[in-house]
Amino acid sequence: MSKISKRQIKRRMQQIDAHVGMKMRDFRIKLGMTQETLAAYVGVTFQQQQKNERGINRIAASRLMAIACVLGVQIEAFYQGLPKRLLKGLPGYVGVLAVRRKAANNNRRSKLAGHRQPHPRTVRNPRLRVRRVPTPNASPSARQA
Asked: How many domains does the chain have?
């Protein structure tokens, strides 16, 4: 993963804030609600709500939850359509493809090394003996084995 500078991180975060604000504005307009009305429901001033929609101010998680409840949407709806290029390279972001690639490589290595995955109903006890876990539908005689 390529490293990005602090300035680039800040710029991307501002773009994400602007995207969330734009989505918030879209949902508000679809409901026919004014900025003043939404601000009153959420408990902020009109100016604060205007800054939120422009992406000038960063919105706290609790405030975003309140806005989502008032607008009747899930929090994820504010992030839909967010360009992946804004997330790439940010600290803590691991792309879905990278995770899948790593899992596939690990699986391939274990097959090449001859490792086998244990049977799902088999567990190992501390003494390294293999013991079968009874299934819920098994007969009493099968449970003793």
From this structure: 1
